[in-house]
Structures are given as C-alpha cells and as structure tokens.
Design brief:
The chain has one domain: Orthogonal Bundle (ABC transporter involved in vitamin B12 uptake, BtuC), CATH 1.10.3470.10. Helices cover 80% and strands 0% of the residues. The chain is globular, with a radius of gyration of 18 Å.
Length: 265
C-alpha cells in the first residue's frame, strides 16, 4: 500500500477519506443522539436531485448537491416540526421526489453518459483537488458551527423541552442540525455514496458510545474510528480491486459485530 501513495489519486482518496470521516464522526454523533437517522437518510437520497440539477446546468456536482441538501433539510425541518405524526410519510415523499428529480434532469442533459452509480455507491479514486478543497470548506463550516453553538446543540439534543424553557431557539438549532447532517451527506458522496452514507454516519458513533459519556468526546472518538474504517477500507479495496465505499462500510459492520460479541463475553 505504501508504494501506492506515490499516485496522486491514492493521495486524494486518503485525504478525502479523512476529511469525510471527521465530518461523519461529528455529525453522526448528533444524528444518533437526536434519533434522526431516518431524517438524515431522507436528506441523503433527496440530494440526488441536486446532483441531477448540477449536471443539467453544468455546475460542480458537489455544489449542486449542497444546495439541494440544505434546501431539503430546511423543508424537512419545517414540515416535521409542524407535523411530527407524519414524519415517515414526509421523508418517504422527499426521498422519492429527490431521486426522481435527479434522474429526470440527467435524462434531459444532452450527451451525458457518465455512470451515475458512482454517486450512489461512491468513487473515492475519482476525487479531484477541487473536491478536496470543497471538503475542507465543508469541514471548517461544520466544526466551526458545532464549536460556536455546542452548548445550545447539546441542550436541544438531550432535552429540547428544557432547552426551550432556558430560552434556546429549539426550532433554529433543530434545523441547523439537519443542515449539518445534509452537508455531511454531501461530503460523503464521493467516498461511500448516497446509499451507504448513513452507515458511515452511524456505525462509528455506535462504537464511540461504548467509550464516551460526553457528546464532545463521542464526536472525537467517532471521527477517529471513521478514519480507521476509511484507511482499512481503502487498503482492502486496493489489494482486492473492489469498491472502496462498500469496503469501508463492510469494515465498519464487521468491527461493530465483533465489538458487540466481545462486549457480551
């Protein structure tokens, strides 16, 4: 594997994997603690519409996915806050609508014949220098937002009613958490794809919960675990010539199962 590091695409894959792991560890902790895994999944698949729109308009794919993910997160926050009994139906509709919009825009794009499976299951070896720069900006925004609003996010995540009594704008921070989840989804598109992104957001956090009693520590440990998964997944992908995104998730799942079995013993 060391000799492979001389290639630019391997270096980019490793760097992007680490950047995405940091975002996944931080926001994955919020997703699990707030129990919004299904909402994050809806945002993930809805952002496919942004990919199709970006391709149709000739814009950078990650930029288009970001706009669509943020818009979807805000819309889902508004709809679910006003009608919590219909969350599953709302997410199902947004999920299907985003995917349908993406497919239609791609079909309307003349001469476009690129395999869209790379956006569904990831294509980390295709990460460019521009993609890495964009991932850095996303990470900076995510980390800064969490650091600045950590106390408010912590309060809303564990006891929203108490937070509201303390004068915290619960609706705003609930929406912010969903937006950050959407940005993390966008960051993970090139690494594991939209289909597998929820696994990358949740598996490291489930493992981190075994060692962390505080949300901040959970975020740090979860990010480190995600980085380890990414590195080992890339190694397996390199030696066996299989999909890197799937390899990363398989490493995570087997590690989680092994840790559960050892924990019981």
């Amino acid at each position: 594997m060391l000799e492979a590091l001389q290639y630019d695409f391997i270096q980019n894959a490793l760097i992007s994997g680490i950047l995405v792991s940091i975002a996944a560890g931080i926001i994955g902790s919020l997703v699990v603690v707030n129990r919004i895994t299904f909402l994050a999944g809806g945002i993930a698949h809805s952002s496919y519409g942004g990919i199709g729109l970006a391709i149709f308009l000739g814009l950078p794919v990650l930029f288009g996915a970001t706009l669509f993910a943020v818009a979807t997160a805000i819309l889902i926050a508004i709809l679910t806050l006003n009608n919590k009994k219909r969350i599953d139906s709302i997410i199902g509709i947004m999920w299907a609508f985003g995917m349908a919009v993406g497919i239609i825009f791609v079909d309307l794009t003349p001469g476009y014949n690129v395999d869209l499976m790379s956006y569904l299951f990831g294509s980390i070896i295709a990460v460019s220098n521009e993609d890495i720069q964009y991932l850095v900006l996303l990470d900076v925004f995510i980390i800064t937002s969490v650091l600045v609003f950590y106390k408010q996010i912590l309060a809303v995540s564990y006891d929203s009613e108490f937070a509201q009594l303390r004068g915290i704008n619960v609706k705003f921070f609930y929406t912010l958490i969903l937006i950050l989840a959407g940005l993390s989804v966008v960051a993970a598109i090139k690494v594991v794809g939209l289909i597998l992104v929820i696994a990358l957001l949740t598996i490291p956090t489930y493992l981190a919960e075994m060692f962390a009693k505080k949300l901040s520590l959970m975020m740090i440990i979860s990010s480190l675990i995600a980085i380890v998964f990414t590195i080992f997944g890339l190694i397996i992908s390199y030696f066996y010539d299989i999909s890197s995104g799937a390899s990363i998730i398989i490493v995570g799942v087997f590690t989680l199962l092994l840790s559960k079995l050892l924990g019981r013993k």
